[in-house]
Known about the structure:
Elements: H1 2-14, E1 21-24, H2 33-45, E2 52-55, H3 57-66, H4 69-73, H5 88-98, H6 101-104, H7 118-125, H8 129-151, H9 156-176, H10 183-197, H11 204-219
Parallel strand pairs: 1-2
Helix pairs in contact: 1-2, 5-9, 5-11, 8-11
Amino acid sequence: xxxxxxxxxxxxxxxxxxxxxxxxxxxxxxxxxxxxxxxxxxxxxxxxxxxxxxxxxxxxxxxxxxxxxxxxxxxxxxxxxxxxxxxxxxxxxxxxxxxxxxxxxxxxxxxxxxxxxxxxxxxxxxxxxxxxxxxxxxxxxxxxxxxxxxxxxxxxxxxxxxxxxxxxxxxxxxxxxxxxxxxxxxxxxxxxxxxxxxxxxxxxxxxxxxxxxxxxxxxxxxxxxxxxxxx
Length: 231
């Protein structure tokens, strides 16, 4: 979207109607994206870089936290807003696991033991049998390796990122999930959102691993309803 603004910026600059320009992105400006985009706009429009300011989704979220009256002025009701989560911590987890892909790709002869009854959890969360069966077939073999990776002492910081992510997902699911939705839709909505908002997660080599980690959260009872606290 920002790229489409370049011709208009150049036109306003030529007409001397513009000294400073602020652009709002509908995605996060990961890494050095803001610097690269700013340099491109400055070069194409013959503008000093200091006159251009890019505001990503993360900055907008910060502003809305700092100025809570703004959503009310815009008649935005957070209760009616969709289930939106941050992909940042999950991207760190996925990248870290991906760097150990050789260990993770090994197929187990014996599937990991269930922490709780998978069938009971699926019933509690209204996950369809077909979707649950497909998840289990594709990603169950990865759960033990993910658990071992997160449990390794040298990966303590990655475990902390995982825990932050799982907690955010669970609280958002509880607060935003509609009572009639099955959990198939919740999982696919989360994945679509994560792939849209984070360039690391939507990379071809990371997509399957992202799905595997999300399944691990569900399998490990970090997200979704469980029968009791002990489970």
